[in-house]
Amino acid sequence: MELDKLIKLLKDNKELNVGVRLGILLGLYYTRSAWFKELLEATRLNKAELYQHLKILHKSGYVEIKYIPTVEGKRLKVFITKKGDELIKQVVELLREK
């Protein structure tokens, strides 16, 4: 059953047991990257909460965090990694199966 596979996949990747982190990765799967400010607006978390979630995803290898110089100063941009991409691809495939 696909539901069993999906639950096992999420249990095996404990970092994704929090819906916000799964949502961030799903969004990055489709957009490939996002500015910190965009993620703040999308998640409606405060800066500290969002940064904590991103640190956990980064430590697990699902996202890469880069500070990019802009006219307004350094800005944080988040990119999905190959590991994150492969995991979310599995989640999406399991959600599509009937």
Note down, in words, how this protein is organized:
The protein has one domain (2-96): Winged helix-like DNA-binding domain superfamily/Winged helix DNA-binding domain (Arc Repressor Mutant, subunit A, Orthogonal Bundle). The radius of gyration is 14 Å and the shape is elongated. Helices cover 61% and strands 19% of the residues. It is an alpha+beta fold and 98 residues long. The mean pLDDT is 94. The protein has a 3-stranded antiparallel β-sheet. Pfam families: HTH_34 (PF13601). InterPro entries: WH-like_DNA-bd_sf, WH_DNA-bd_dom, WH_DNA-bd_sf.
Features:
61% helix, three-stranded antiparallel sheet, Arc Repressor Mutant, subunit A, alpha+beta, 98 residues, 3 strands
In short:
This is Winged helix DNA-binding domain-containing protein. This protein has 98 residues and is of the alpha+beta class. Helices cover 61% and strands 19% of the residues.
